[in-house]
């Protein structure tokens, strides 16, 4: 259940991160994606100031638009029923968290979903570096016993794979995202692209958005279909998310398409036949107002079948929102629903990239807040990174204003970042994020879980894994980056438990970096969990 504009009109990496040289990192990734260059853009800027300035100026030219919005105050609400005694609680089996994808090769950037037709069936996916070339590829993992044990594989079509698929010939894939339909079929979305490991422009670089489908609980993905392909040598598809309409099982995908000068557009496609065919990509951001510095589109569908999509405009520092009341045929005009303050990347005392990637979820269950839409992100307005939330109770017409979720003292100098959000059928709002409050030096990272039983007004949070040094993640020869944790982690919710997954470097060191995927389960209601 993850996951103001009345009426409709016709219509890798994530977020803008401050980096050395003053280059936003969503621009940095797009630059490498389109050109194939391996040297960081910030180093080009420092090494050749005039040329670098020209590059960045060309990238960032866009009209500066002031769009006003009115935020409603947080909606007064009847307090939710307290959780049963002793809940929520971490389920230890045996050490309160377990490794989802064991093995020596690094892995990061994970999503996780519980099968609504069979909660014992959980699927996960991540950027997995186990393929022969060493580039990342979409790895997928499945459990049939509530997350106690896991199977693992790489999506077919990777370099050296014996299977020939629509992804064959691509050198790398990643940015996995998962969703289930009402019948228990799993959908795995991602991007794939050719690898040209040479510096400088590489015309003809190919990139695609794809969706794979599994009908056996995520053990195999026999149907892999390209949703969109780069149409010019200067375009590149990046960071997609996927959701399924609970009213008709339509599948929706949104992503950013970078064009000439790295201008970004939010685009949408849908499938009405289980992922077999897809509509032509439709632009849903507002190019006429210069909305070009965009990233992080996220779709959710409420129980009435209305599709809601949010993203970040890094030019205006706003969270943007559109909706469709006709299953993606048309969309409302984009509007602002909240302000954001981007965190520095890397954060103080660390070297890993820090993403600003808002995540959304809708209450499609049976609570008094049914129909609520929640959006969460990490924010630097207090001079350290906190998790912030905004929500709508009226289908996206008005929004609550931003409120802080993490419960540590305001402005204490510790960082909470990279949240994911879900809503249980009984209306509990739950999150996972990385947290550094338990280290006096604000360096070691550990995953935290948070829950609100009153529609997002009040929160309880606690750690769900041991602390680790985030700088002990591995490197990517594609981007030249070190200390990778990825750009997002995952949570999925049922009536009785939440399934969590994150990239974890506890098995790595400065001399031998390593990141793995770990998971945990949190009980939130009395009843069978395993």
Task: Tell me what you see in this structure.
There is one protein chain. This protein is mostly beta strands and 530 residues long. It has one domain: Neuraminidase. The protein has 3 helices and 29 strands. Helix 2 crosses helix 3. The chain is globular.
Summarize the entry for a quick read:
This protein is mainly β and 530 residues long. The protein is built from three helices and 29 strands.
Keywords summarizing the entry:
single chain; 530 residues; mainly beta; Neuraminidase; five-stranded antiparallel sheet; four-stranded antiparallel sheet; 3 helices; 29 strands; 6% helix; 35% strand; globular; disordered N terminus
The main pleated sheet reads as: 5 strands, antiparallel
Total number of helices: 3
Multimeric state: single chain
Stretches where pLDDT falls below 50 for ≥5 residues? 3-27, 31-80, 198-204
Could you name the CATH topology? Neuraminidase
What is the CATH first-level class name?
Mainly Beta
| Overall tally of domains | 1
The CATH architecture can be given as: 6 Propeller
Radius of gyration: 21 Å
Silhouette: globular
Helix content: under 10%
Count the E strands: 29
Q: Assess the beta-strand content as a share of residues.
A: 25-35%
Structural class: mainly beta
Average of the residue pLDDT scores: 83
How far apart the termini lie comes to: 20 Å
Produce the secondary structure layout.
Elements: H1 25-35, H2 41-47, H3 49-60, E1 89-91, E2 98-101, E3 107-114, E4 122-128, E5 137-143, E6 151-154, E7 172-180, E8 186-193, E9 207-214, E10 223-229, E11 236-244, E12 251-258, E13 264-271, E14 282-283, E15 294-301, E16 307-313, E17 318-324, E18 335-339, E19 359-362, E20 373-379, E21 386-392, E22 403-404, E23 416-423, E24 429-435, E25 446-452, E26 460-463, E27 490-493, E28 497-504, E29 516-523
Antiparallel strand pairs: 1-29, 2-29, 3-4, 4-5, 5-6, 7-8, 8-9, 9-10, 11-12, 12-13, 13-14, 15-16, 16-17, 17-18, 19-20, 20-21, 21-22, 23-24, 24-25, 25-26, 27-28, 28-29
